[in-house]
Amino acid sequence: MFRNFIKVLAPYRDKLSRAVGGNGTAFEKNAVSKEQQLTEVLRKSLPGITYVSVQDISGGCGAMFEISIEAKEFVGLSTVKQHRLVTSSLKYEIAEMHGIRIHTTPSSD
To answer: Which PANTHER family match (predicted)?
Structure first.
């Protein structure tokens, strides 16, 4: 359900980011590479990921991210334990951030 909600909002998010961002500043380019880096680290540490979304919510400076993950590793775990898995996976990356928002969902696949 959460995954479908994110998919519905994706076209609007992309249009808004193009309208606001223009051609892209150095900060935005850095944030995109940081988003990709965070996604790769998560996929390596949690191979059961069925959905992952990493977005820079700091206005382009790469200091705060929102992460939504659906993974098989979360099945049977409390929300706190799910979030601990994510934060332990991103331990070094989080040290460089101002903040992080985490949304987790156990995979039903």
So the answer is: BOLA-LIKE PROTEIN 3
Bridge-partner residues for 103, per DSSP?
Answer: 68
Contact 71, 104 (CB under 8 A): yes
42 Cβ neighbours under 8 A, 6+ residues apart: 49, 52, 54, 67, 69, 86, 89, 90
The residues, ordered by sequence, that sit 6+ positions from 74 with a Cβ below 8 Å of its Cβ are: 82, 85, 104, 105, 106, 107
> What digits encode the pLDDT tens for the residues 2-25?
666 666 666 666 555 544 445 555
The number of distinct structural domains making up the chain is: 1
DSSP labels, 21-55 = HTT--HHHHHHHHHHHHHHHHHHHH-TTEEEEEEE
Kindly report the CATH number assigned to the domain that includes residue 72: 3.30.300.90
| Domain encompassing residue 19 | 2-106
- Asked whether 107 and 50 are in contact (CB, 8 A), the reply is yes
pTM listed for this prediction? 0.69
